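Subject: Succinate dehydrogenase/fumarate reductase iron-sulfur subunit

B.,
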Amino acid sequence: MDTIQMSHSVDAEFIRQVEQESGQNVSLCYQCGNCTAGCPYTEFYDIPVSQIMRGLQAGQRDKLMSCRSIWLCATCESCTTRCPNNIDVARIMDILRHMARKAGKTPEKEVKTFCDAFLDSVRHHGRVFEMGLMTKYMTRTGRFLTDMDLSVKVLPKRKLAMTPHNIVGKKSIAKIFERYNREGGE
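Prediction pasted inline below.
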């Protein structure tokens, strides 16, 4: 198991930024391990959720920004639900992922590619156009046969539209993206 080196300098600004953006007090975590025990993806993580919280308390910015775990988190909120101190751990994971994205640290490239394709779809259509999302993802990753077995089942049932459907209120969605870009988004 990887040990957190407390002798390294603590990045207090990193802790403050995560707390401010998440609205959470990370010092309330006393390492009970409920978040890790309840996480359905723990076996795929390089750093368990409880250790991400400990790393955050220790101000280990570089370690957390470079870990795979924050990108693999499905934000299912099992960790949040199980926390005896009512820490919104899933929100913290989202903030860490957002910060890593802004810092250009994306060890899980395919997850980032999927997120980018998803947001592009919403930006252009006001909602997700699934066929376009899948096409863009496959083109960007080269994974052309991904989920081909599902398409054979779904297409005859007309569960995937072949053309996008724009929504009423598309301008409101555009304003959200404009505000995000103004506030320092990508």
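The chain has two domains: 12-102, 109-180.

T.
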